[in-house]
Amino acid sequence: MPTTSSLGLEYTPLEPLFQEDPFPFYARLRREAPVTFVPAFQLWLVSRYQDVMAVLKDARRFSSRDTLRPPVEPPPEVWAILESAGYTPDYPLLGDDPPAHTRLRTLLGKAFTLARIQSLEPRIRRVTTTCLDTLTSGERNADIVARLATPVSMYVTTELLGIPEADHARIKQWCEDEKLCFTPLPLEQHLHTARGVANFRLYLRDLVEDRRESPRDDLISSMLEARTEGERPLTTEELVALISVLLFAGHETSTNLLTNALHHLLRHPGLWRELREDTSLIRNAIEETLRFDPPIVGMMRTTTEPVEIAGTSLPRGSRVFPLFASANRDEQLFEQGERFDIHRPNAARHLGLGHGIHYCIGAPLARLGAHITLELMLERLPDLRLSPGAPVTYLPSLLHRGPRQLLMEWGA
């Protein structure tokens, strides 16, 4: 077993106290052990901006092939359920290296265009307005995650793909099942989440076959039709896996970006009023949120040969976890990095949505949804505030970060 700092023993990302505020631990990593081994998960944490960037820029030596491989292997009974639905632990785009990644990114890029994203703006405004109408009809408090952020983000992602609104609730539950399925769980709960993941894959397969027979004006149909010279089109299996990635990452990232932004804007006195008075600050407030408390903590890599990071030698086959959430507060780049500052001039240099060939393909859509929702909330809820004393808890996850619940109040 590698010998590094004992800090690796203190890495407990699934524990509630750690989830509540992991940033002091990250700061210690940057100061004391910028590259350290975690025996519990058999991985190396990389915490400084410069080193994280070096990993993300080097796709040859730091492979993404196993980026979403479970840190703890599920039991055989769980795998049996997953495999019965054709599930494989391969996640296109996120879990591919060139040239396979290049092919998929090119084909998806032909369908997932900026024009398609921009065409969603009127619909995002409409669904956000509808949610706000419902939210404010006689009420003076609510959980913003359940009542606004999740339904808006789910609507935007499913609208893009052409998935019926009637299926939103079960898709959300299946995404929650997939998030939990690859964490340590009691066996009965593990089997329950595996059934959800299996049903999700079967649903997506039926959806792809339906679009193959009856194309529509949606992203799934466009991906079926996408062609690039010298490359084969996407297969049903590839599309099922790719759509699961887009659905999960799309709504999860967007929900967490919006709720993290609201949490920090309202925790800091005067910021909500400042944004109301100058809505041009919304854009940089979103970038500062992505820096200060990103929706994606980091993404795994695997070394393809012996490497050295910040003076630490890692053997071939090492699991490396570059921590975007830590790099984003590195004071070598971000002055007073532990301070939330919507005027920060270099906020956009964050790694909150990754970097390089695996930079989040849905980033423009996540930013657009957050911008529109914040703009409408500032207009409709000028006195919005966090409910006093309400705890903010997080779903256990190595990769994702966002409140499970965010209770807010408005009015007298």
From TrEMBL:
The keyword Metal-binding is annotated on this UniProt entry: yes
Cross-referenced InterPro entries: Cyt_P450, Cyt_P450_B, Cyt_P450_sf
Gene Ontology MF terms: heme binding; iron ion binding; monooxygenase activity; oxidoreductase activity, acting on paired donors, with incorporation or reduction of molecular oxygen
Keywords: Heme, Iron, Metal-binding, Monooxygenase, Oxidoreductase
Matching SUPFAM superfamilies: Cytochrome P450 (SSF48264)
Family from the record: Belongs to the cytochrome P450 family.
PANTHER family: P450, PUTATIVE (EUROFUNG)-RELATED
Protein's recorded name: Cytochrome P450 hydroxylase
Organism whose genome encodes this protein: Cystobacter fuscus (strain ATCC 25194 / DSM 2262 / NBRC 100088 / M29)
